[in-house]
Amino acid sequence: MVDQHARPPTGEGTPPLPSLRWDEPPEGPVLVLLDQTRLPAEEVELVCADVPTLVRAIRTLAVRGAPLLGIAGAYGVALAAAHGYDVAEAAALLEGARPTAVNLGYGVRRAAAAYREAVGRGAVAEEAAGAALREAKELHREDAAASERMAHHGLALLDELLPGGGHRILTHCNTGRLVSGGEGTAFAVALAAHRAGRLRTLWVDETRPLLQGSRLTAYEAAVNGLPYTLLTDNAAGSLFAAGQVDAVLIGADRIAADGSVANKVGSYPLAVLAKYHHVPFIVVAPTTTVDPRTADGASIEVEQRPGQEVTDVTGPRPGAAGGLPVAPPGTVAYNPAFDITPPELVTAVVTEEGVVSPVTGGGIAELCARSRQV
Ligand code: MRU
């Protein structure tokens, strides 16, 4: 991994560096990532010239968020093919890098299928690598388009549920441009509400332990000029009790066939609070996050991450050595990266294909019938 260049954080109105881009310098193709572990302090690009480097970037969350993981996985296959590595082996490594976001496997399988199909019809290695790259670029484009459609459907839903405007929206983790080929999922809806003059405030959960809310969502809100306020995750309850939340908007890492939603740990408690306080709990995700092969919430594999992410506060650089210990040495920590929200707590699932509400197995099956699945 090479730091290609670093620049001070983007200010309001400055175009951000792309979350990910394919590049073809004379030394050979590379996948260039905006290193999300360095935000918001600085914008640094990581150059991945091989699959193990990309796998490490995925595990350390330099690249993260379900849709972007899918895109990165697809480009990872293209990278392996372009450098003449064993594509099946590379695909297995990439798919296994993180277990919960279904998009990762989806993107990997799509690019690998395009490569195999080309090989099957007698293409030479270079042509087959080109087929994998075209598929990755196509997924990248589709995700950007999906993002735009989700923002459109999500804003219409907000207007229907909250006709008065002046929305006060609570969000968790990070779901903007940093996770997407476009403007994101839940964050794209908040952004659309802001552009339409209907967002009063975006409440941003800090999202312990890796602070995707404070490091990344607050950064994206600032870049886009959104009115936002940061809170600790455990302040959400009193915010609901004070009547300060009109809707919760979150993304998803996997939506099972019964409508159960896996998302960043801390999402489920928000769904419980939203139910108690009669506030809509809305999940925004592309259809590539829907996984009809996983029957229900209990069948979703939840990634367990190192306890050190909890026992040490790592500051602006998660995973970096030299964090500040906030627990006695030897403390054992429980650190699931995600939790599962059952469908009965979800008011609606917003996708690029439209809105599913109420959220039931039947509604999810109908959605899948309308969309492309690998
Ligand atoms: O562990 P992360 O940072 O990859 O988790 C990301 C999330 O949980 C997001 O909320 C989810 O991927 C939805 S983003 C569209």
Describe the structure.
This protein is an alpha/beta fold. The chain contains eleven helices and 17 strands. The mean pLDDT is 94. 5-S-methyl-1-O-phosphono-5-thio-D-ribulose (MRU) binds next to helix 2 and strand 10. The active site is at residue 253. It catalyses: 5-(methylsulfanyl)-alpha-D-ribose 1-phosphate = 5-(methylsulfanyl)-D-ribulose 1-phosphate. It comes from Streptomyces formicae.
Key terms for this structure?
374 residues, alpha/beta, 4-stranded antiparallel β-sheet, 17 strands, binds 5-S-methyl-1-O-phosphono-5-thio-D-ribulose
List the helices and strands and how they pair.
Layout: E1 2-7, E2 20-23, E3 30-34, E4 43-48, H1 51-59, H2 66-82, H3 87-95, H4 102-120, H5 125-161, E5 167-171, H6 186-195, E6 199-205, H7 212-223, E7 228-231, H8 236-241, E8 247-250, E9 254-256, E10 261-264, H9 267-276, E11 281-284, E12 290-291, H10 308-311, E13 312-313, E14 324-325, E15 338-341, E16 348-351, E17 354-356, H11 361-370
Parallel strand pairs: 5-6, 5-8, 6-7, 8-11, 9-12, 11-16
Antiparallel strand pairs: 1-4, 2-3, 3-4, 9-10, 10-15, 13-14, 16-17
Helix pairs in contact: 2-3, 2-4, 2-5, 3-4, 4-5, 5-6
Bound molecules: 5-S-methyl-1-O-phosphono-5-thio-D-ribulose.
5-S-methyl-1-O-phosphono-5-thio-D-ribulose binds at residues 61, 64-67, 101, 173, 175, 179, 185, 212, 251-253, 263-264, 337.
Protein name: Methylthioribose-1-phosphate isomerase
Pfam families: IF-2B (PF01008)
Organism: Streptomyces formicae
